[in-house]
Amino acid sequence: GMVLPEGSKQEKAFIRLIATFVTSLKSSCRSLKDVLKQTDEADDRRSEFVVKNIFRPVYERYAEALRSSGQIDFTDAILQATELCRATHPVSSAQPKSIKSKRPIVSVSRWLVCRLDSSNVIRLK
């Protein structure tokens, strides 16, 4: 297999690519299974190969490292904060738009106490 030189432009580009894919996957609320099903349905063998053999192993290790250390990443924090706001302050579709946003999303900070460490991972306190 190919090994990217540590600290090289190629390694940094690869890390950015993986981070972008993780963020896109999570923010679209899709799973790896969904993506693989889509590549299969589109008969896109190249994408299927990349997802199965490059992205999935990295993503699974990343997700396990977060789980085992009790951490979430920035995308998870945003998604969880959004869900918490929806759950604790449901918005009726019958209300006019001007009334709907009485409580700003920032109010979630009362419930979610976290800190951003140097690796951009949020650790819940």
Mind explaining what this structure looks like?
- The protein has helices at 9-27, 32-41, 45-69, 74-88, 97-100, and strands at residues 71-73, 114-116, 121-124.
- With 125 residues, the protein is mainly alpha-helical.
- The protein is globular, with a radius of gyration of 18 Å.
Briefly say what this structure is:
By secondary structure, the protein is mostly helical.
What order do the helices and strands come in, and which of them pair?
Layout: H1 9-27, H2 32-41, H3 45-69, E1 71-73, H4 74-88, H5 97-100, E2 114-116, E3 121-124
Antiparallel strand pairs: 1-3, 2-3
Strand content: 5-15%
Low-confidence stretches: 98-125
Helix content: 55-70%
Q: For the largest beta sheet, what order do the strands appear in spatially?
A: 1-3-2
Cα distance spanning the termini:
40 Å
**DSSP strand count:** 3
Give the overall average pLDDT: 75
Largest sheet: 3 strands, antiparallel
- Count of individual helical segments: 5
Principal-axes shape call: globular
Written as H for each helix and E for each strand, in order along the chain, the element string is: HHHEHHEE
Secondary structure class reads mainly alpha
Question: Radius of gyration over alpha carbons?
Answer: 18 Å
